[in-house]
# Entry
Amino acid sequence: MNKKAEKIYNLIDNWMTSDDRFVSDVNKRKWEGLKEYFLIQMEKIAEKFDLIVTARKNPEFKVFLKDIEMETDEGTIYMGNYLLIFQLEIWSMKWYVKFKQISINDFGRKVMKDAYHPHISGGRPCLGDFRDEYNNMSNEWAMLSLCCKGKEFLECYNRENPYHHLGYYVPIELNLGTEEEPEMMIWKGQNKAEAMFSIVSMYIPGLDSFVLRPDDWPLFSVHIKNIMEEYECNQLRATHIWIKNVSLFFSQLSWKLNDLSRLTTSYSGREKVSRFIANNGNYFGIGRLFPIYLESSMFKTLDRFNRLSYMSNYLERASDILKWTIKTNPDFSDWNKRSALSEKNFEALSIFKTLSNDIIDKAFKSQKDVSQVLNDANYYIRKRYLEFLTSERMKIEDEIIHYSEDGKQNNLFAKQVEVN
# Structure
């Protein structure tokens, strides 16, 4: 008897016969009728696949699927390795399957997370027409069939209804060296998808998500190559180290900009800026009759000041940081150095020193210029309002020397005739 198959068999049997847990008589009878069949199934799985049983109490096991390749209209795409996690729900006596993958975080540790695949979301597969057959196999404990169908599912692609585009997995091959001494870096399968999804999930105040465009991959790959050499790690861990550093950079810069915005002009000055922006085109309540708009340069300056803590004032796209030289922080796997991550004074700005200095300089300049712009805006609005009053006065004076044909009250909209 295979030891792993025997272990999962004993886990379930102990659960069913334990006096410490309530298990219905119906479920106990079902187990008695299935136990031999289940053991045979598990021995066949152990022969055909890589069976993993690490649970100590809960009835669950894992099946490791190596080097999965997905067949698509564009050809065969390498996806990587997957884990099928089988968990038995005792109350319903039904097996549930989750699709997971092994990843490497920035600390260099292996972590299990939801698998990336065009037809998987949150570790759950989109089964489509296969759902009824899949549920029947799960209810009948056809474990070998579940494993085989799970592998077949990962190897198939339906272009009609994927959760996300196939482009997340299509390989990208880049030569980071020269023609004489090429240094190839390949992004493919789950590694490429994980990099793209992880980068998009970064929060950057005032900017849209960081999306890697096709022309961003060469610059991004250079950063990853440098980190791989510095940390002597693989591509996946280097990606997470880069994301950690960039996230710290934006967090620290956001703190500095927030602090700077609190040290700017007085409260009344900030109120004036907000009022100018909110009422632009509708000053003195005459917007529809005579809209007064600030000049473009004035409005942009006031808007930048009003949004001083937002990165959109200083970067058009988050991926602009790819153009700057990265300097990573100390190795996060060192506990003594990792403690700095929780301190607000952590010098993440050193990662992109030139870029951060440039942004802070622009923020100070915006702070310095805003008082003069407020005065100019006040003068401009009053000047335009005076033009409006002057035009209204001229209309009234012009109306006085005209009258309607029927002798009624003067009306700007009545047919006008000249006085003899």
Summary: The beta strands are 50-52, 60-72, 75-89, 94-104, 110-114, 120-121, 124-125, 172-175, 184-187. The mean pLDDT is 80. Residues 353-400 form the longest helix (48 residues).
